[in-house]
Amino acid sequence: MSSGTPENPLRIAIVGSGPSGFYAAEALFKSEQTVHVDMFEKLPVPFGLVRSGVAPDHPKIKNVTRVYDKIAANPNFAFWGNVEIGKDLQIQELQTYYHAIIFASGAASDRRLNIPGEDLPRSYTATEFVAWYNGHPEYRHHQFDLTQKSAVIIGQGNVAVDVCRILAKSYDELKQTDIASHALEALANSQIEDIYMVGRRGPAQAAFTPQEVKELGELAITDTLINPEDLHLSQTDEAELQLPDKAHNRKNMEILRQLSTRTTGARTRRLHILFFYSPVEICGSAGVSSIVLEKNALSGEAGRQKALGTGETITLPAGLVFRSVGYRGTPMPGVPFHEAWGVFKNEQGRIQPGMYTAGWIKRGPSGIIGTNKPCSYETVEQIFADQAQLHCEIPRSQPLADLLKSRQIQVVSYADWQKIDALERAQGEATGKPREKMTAVADMLAALK
Ligand code: NAP
Predict the structure, then answer these.
(1) Do residues 134 and 277 both lie within one domain?
(2) Is 445 within the bounds of a domain?
(3) How many domains does the chain have?
(4) Are 219 and 282 in contact (CB under 8 A)?
(5) Can you give the pLDDT at residue 98?
(6) Which CATH number is 27's domain given?
(7) Per-residue model confidence as pLDDT tens digits over 384-425
(8) Which residues, at least 6 apart from 158, have a Cβ–Cβ distance to it below 8 Å?
(9) What pLDDT is recorded for position 53?
(10) Phi and psi for 275 in degrees, rounded to 5?
(11) What is the 180 CA–ligand 1 centroid distance (Å)?
(12) Percent over 70 (pLDDT), the chain
């Protein structure tokens, strides 16, 4: 019997409830066919990095969840929160109930620097710090020693900028955000005075985007310092900035120049943006105390310049180190994984007929939230191209619900999430925050009882 009809809907399981998962659902619903989508999420709450990654002081970016609410309102959509695929339910079991699975589970791990001292106490990944201040249940008990005077952030992407901003902002700036209360309390007592954001290449290559770097000049208690000499461009840099895809780098340069000429010195904290340095060793005994950086020179043609060490080193005091050099996907048993790239092996989103992928676990950790839309739409095209060969053994969700119940799994529906959402908003309102996130899975589930 052909699928995609009201009698025999095309049944799709989406694993992960971040932007790419929702855009995949949207693409499926926009087709001419009848499609039923079940979205599985290991946490009881949806939205992936929109909830656990987007910085608390960027509330407008989070408004995108209104679009996801509309997608979730489709009568052919169901949210299955608090169900971990690979643990509560194996992939082979899931396959029985669907014509196809789309893995949209993101990139939960981080890239490594592979330098000595990387695993010393007080050397953290940006990913864990971000998840902690955003109240991700798996990171709520992490401890960050904010009694230190200096913090060094390695990397100059937007995540590094987020980490800098959260460390650089005052209690008054953070208290009106939806930052997790444990993080607000810890940051309120922060002793940090110097923050260094270190890039291995130059200002013309920096990965951050203009809006994000502009905000570094708008901090209430932190001066942002840039060495104007670092802003002198080589001929290759000049040529690079003329390339059509370098508009954000051109704008970055303008903003960095403005920042470098401002009068500073009145504020209690300092954010130093350093260019042309790579970390070579994180030093300390009981914990991080300093970091050795090697000066780089750039080599290569415009648009492909690489950082090469010059042998000259400097040592920075560092009570804390945050490595912010990119996220990385984690493997899942039964899904072919590209070890070097940290993604599921796929072509345009097709892993194999019946198994697809979208978002960061498909293409790597790049782009803004909107980048996931075309990415997911491309994946859905592959499903329709394969449709004739897709098969579903048990084309109903109730037996799956029964199976999970027999395993004592409390499945959280979208209506349940909306109750949690309302509770969080109400709790936030009491203290002037847009929401007070629940950070323990047990609390979320108890709130639904
Ligand atoms: P990213 O943009 O890829 O930046 C990674 C940074 O790490 C770059 O500065 C990179 O330098 C550096 N790096 C990589 N390997 C290194 C090494 N071995 N040694 C030293 N430095 C190294 O990654 P991200 O910051 O994690 O962000 C991920 C994506 O999320 C990006 O697309 C970002 O724009 C997006 N995001 C957006 C927002 C927002 O819109 N507000 C917020 C957060 C994240 P090179 O350039 O030299 O490789």
Answers:
(1) yes
(2) no
(3) 2
(4) no
(5) 98
(6) 3.40.50.720
(7) 999 999 999 999 999 999 999 999 999 999 999 999 999 999
(8) 207, 208, 209, 212
(9) 97
(10) -110, 160
(11) 24
(12) 100
Ligand 1 pocket test: which of 159, 292, 366 has the largest number of ligand atoms within 8 Å of its C-beta? 159
Residues 139 and 213 reside in one and the same domain: yes
| Stretch 251-276: mean pLDDT | 93
Residue 312 and residue 357 in one domain? no
DSSP-assigned beta bridge partners for residue 297: 308
- pLDDT band for position 2 (cuts 50, 70, 90): confident
Q: How far is CA 389 from the centre of its chain?
A: 35
One domain, residues 73 and 170:
no
User: Which residue has its alpha carbon closest to ligand 1 atom 46?
Assistant: 207
- Residue 359, ligand 1, Cβ within 6 A: no
The residue out of 325, 359, 388 marking a domain boundary is 325
Q: 158 in ligand 1 pocket by Cβ < 6 Å?
A: yes
Contact 158, 164 (CB under 8 A): no
Mean pLDDT of 291-307: 98
β-bridge pairing 320-323 and 150-154: parallel
H-helix or E-strand spanning residue 38: strand 35-41
1, pLDDT greater than 80 = no
Mean pLDDT over all residues of the chain?
A: 97
pLDDT value of position 108:
85
The pLDDT of residue 264: 78
- Rounded distance from Cα 410 to ligand 1 centre (Å): 37
Indicate the burial class of 239 (C-beta count within 10 angstroms; 0-12, 13-18, 19 or more): middle
Judge whether 75 lies within some domain.
yes
User: Same domain for 145 and 30?
Assistant: no
Calculate how far, in angstroms, residue 113's C-alpha sits from the geometric centre of ligand 1. Answer: 13
- Ligand 1 atom having least distance to the Cα of 205: 46
Minimal-distance CA residue to ligand 1 atom 13: 325
* Closest protein CA for atom 29 of ligand 1: 366
- What is the arithmetic mean of pLDDT over 287-297? 98
Are residue 150 and residue 129 in the same domain, yes or no?
A: yes
88 ligand 1 Cβ < 6 A: no
Mean pLDDT of 222-241: 96
Ligand 1 proximity of 21 Cβ (cutoff 6 Å) = no
The boundaries of the domain holding residue 40 are 10-108+328-412
For residue 265, pLDDT over 90 is answered with no
